[in-house]
Amino acid sequence: MATAQIPLPEKLDSKKPEDWKRWIERFECYRIAAGLDDKVQINTLVYAMGGNANDILKSFHLDEKDYVYETVIQQFASHFVRRSNVIFERARFNKRVQGEKESVIDFIEAN
After folding, report:
1. I want to staple 8 with a disulfide (CB 3.0 to 4.6 A). Which of 33, 48, 65, 76 is the partner?
2. Superkingdom, according to UniProt (predicted)?
């Protein structure tokens, strides 16, 4: 069986929603490589996420017709990816002062 030979991605820490985008990209690679069908993809996704992913999935209250991989992914994305206020983020960035030994990359990427 192909899935036994391909390791799952590391668990997603649901307390760090900023990791969602990177984690789901790894899972997408895994599901394609493992050749999973729709129902197995959803269950493998929840299992691979670990933690309280199953509780989060249940909180979506999806009907049987909506229990499709793409819909589940969209629901998780809207749960983990926060919307940002561009004006607020610009103001916050503009108030920041670059540290004396802080690289430009670290300065730009800092929250």
Report:
1. 48
2. Eukaryota
